[in-house]
Design goal:
By secondary structure, this protein is mainly beta. The strands form two sheets. It has a 19-stranded mixed β-sheet that branches. Strands 1-2 form a two-stranded antiparallel sheet.
């Protein structure tokens, strides 16, 4: 064996160059391994938008299984619905008339769980809004129709802002409830949470009858105007001002606070 073939007493073997087809094969395997670890919902997620011409005081009703729901009022006699679906198996089929638009994700997807479906909806300002979901946050902004209802069966926050409706109802099991708006004369406002805080922000000249039960109750600036029974700040029944509207608030394991 020649000296050129000996390095430090060991035979030296020439390196073999990789075959031409090796690099593309390695790259393909690497790409496949990356794709395999990407959640399947990333590729399946899709958006779908539908628009309906409606009357100004239309009623919107939505029943969802899971996912966030955001409803915003706008100055058009149209309802625009954008659904972001996690699974390609989800069926999105709203029914519409001049008076109402209904979306029932529970019935149209009754065969099984299709993952989260997130909604972004724009409605006329004077619409009636009725939203229900098993799990997920609900947000309603800028609506001044006859009624606003937001019901989360299990876990999810409810946020109602810039609301002026005759009837407002917000309920959840786990999650906070926030109401920012104006009360109407003879209006009814119900806020109920099992494990969550309730925050109510209304004008200081508001008049209402309060029925409240909570772990702690803070009337804020309304404390000096409250006329009624106060049971250790856990149960309150009485009037503020003329008592024209009614607020019924219950938070069994959370707090209730009024914010100026």
């Amino acid at each position: 064996m020649s000296n050129t073939q000996m390095i430090f007493g060991f035979p030296h073997r020439a390196r073999r160059r990789p075959q031409r087809g090796a690099r593309p094969l390695v790259f393909a395997l690497l790409l496949f391994s990356m794709i395999a670890f990407v959640p399947a919902g990333v590729f399946a997620q899709r958006n779908k938008t539908k628009t309906f011409t409606v009357r100004p005081d239309v009623r919107l009703e939505l029943k969802n299984r899971s996912g966030t729901v955001t409803v915003e009022g706008w100055n058009q006699n149209k309802i625009e619905i954008t659904a972001s679906m996690e699974s390609s198996a989800a069926n999105f089929a709203p029914s519409a008339s001049n008076d109402a638009v209904e979306i029932d994700m529970m019935s149209t997807n009754a065969r099984g769980d299709v993952g989260d479906v997130n909604f972004r909806i724009r409605v006329p300002v004077n619409s009636t809004v009725d939203i229900q979901t098993l799990r997920g946050n609900i947000t309603v902004r800028g609506v001044q129709g006859a009624m606003v209802r937001a019901h989360v069966t299990s876990e999810g926050d409810v946020e109602l802002t810039d609301i002026r409706a005759k009837r407002v109802m917000a309920e959840n099991m786990m999650g906070n409830i926030t109401f920012v708006g104006q009360l109407t004369e003879s209006g009814f406002y119900k806020f109920e949470s099992t494990q969550g805080d309730i925050r109510i922000r209304i004008p200081m000249d508001s008049g209402f009858r309060l029925m409240a039960l909570s772990r702690s109750i803070d009337l804020g600036g309304f404390a000096q105007m409250f006329n009624g029974n106060n049971n250790n700040q856990r149960r309150m029944i009485g009037n503020v001002g003329n008592g024209a509207a009614e607020i019924n608030a219950t938070s069994l394991r959370g707090s209730l606070s009024f914010i100026r």
